[in-house]
Amino acid sequence: MDAIVAVDSNWAIGQAGGMLFHLPKDLQYFKRMTLGKTLVMGRATLDSLPGGRPLPGRSSIVLTRDRGFCRQGAQAAHSLNELSDLIDSLPPEQVMLIGGGQLYHALIDCCHTAYVTRVEASAPAADTWFPRLDERPGWALEDRAPIQEDKGLRHQVYIYRNRIVRPLGEILEKL
Ligand SMILES: NC(=O)c1ccc[n+]([C@@H]2O[C@H](COP(=O)([O-])OP(=O)(O)OC[C@H]3O[C@@H](n4cnc5c(N)ncnc54)[C@H](OP(=O)(O)O)[C@@H]3O)[C@@H](O)[C@H]2O)c1
User: Fold this and answer.
1) Which of 67, 120, 143, 155 is deepest in the core (most CB within 10 A)?
2) Which segments in the chain show pLDDT lower than 50?
3) 59 CB less than 6 Å from ligand 1?
4) Is 80 in the pocket of ligand 1 (CB under 6 A)?
């Protein structure tokens, strides 16, 4: 599994259930990076998508403890155990963790690569964050894409690799 995210200069990712920035070029990048893959997301992130609907051209697995959860085009996983059963047979590079805060914090160390769009701005009212990969054991910056600009906001994709990928099963044992 890999992760993809957009963060501000303090690794913030969200505010009041929504995104911090609207960056059309980065959304195009997100689309290119996720099309045809299986997306893993928390229920709050699904709710934040247009119409609360899964994104077209991709499979969606949604983590929720709500046994009554039913959303067309989305498959529910009610625990990390159920998630493990659903993604175990898939090639790791075909599975993309897309958020949000709870899911990134629970699963980031199970990811091989994180595609982090770093936006040169800070969102003071943010209430959700991504793990700070610069300080996280096992993670190292491998590459940076050219700087882009959207509506006056400069942003750049940083590619981080995890040298100590933890199997999902190992995380489950610690819960
Ligand atoms: N900047 C970015 O790239 C980016 C990407 C994605 C999201 N975001 C932002 O992040 C925010 C949402 O993040 P969030 O942390 O509030 O929520 P989240 O991680 O998207 O979803 C949290 C929900 O996931 C379910 N869940 C979590 N752990 C679970 C487990 N072990 N087993 C079963 N279900 C589990 C629960 O759903 P139930 O309550 O239904 O049980 C929980 O309320 C929004 O502001 C969104 O816009 C930003």
Assistant:
1) 155
2) 175
3) no
4) yes
Q: Residue ranges of the domains in the chain?
A: 2-174
Query: Which CATH number is associated with domain 2-174?
Result: 3.40.430.10
Size of the chain in residues: 175
Is the CB of 163 inside a 6 Å radius of any atom of ligand 1? no
Which residues in the chain belong to E strands, given as ranges? 2-7, 12-15, 18-19, 38-42, 59-63, 74-77, 95-99, 113-119, 128-129, 139-144, 148-150, 153-162
As given in the structure block, the two tokens for residue 167 are: 């199997």
Cβ–Cβ < 8 Å for 97, 84: no
Measure the CA–CA gap between 35 and 98, rounded to whole angstroms. Answer: 12
Task: For residue range 160-174, list pLDDT tens digits in order.
Answer: 999 999 999 887 755
CA separation, residue 145 to residues 44, 117, 124, 174 (Å): 29, 9, 26, 36
Among 33, 34, 40, 43, the mutation site with the greatest number of ligand 1 atoms within 8 A of its Cβ is 43
Contacts with 64 (C-beta within 8 Å, 6 or more apart), sequence order: 42, 43, 76, 77, 78
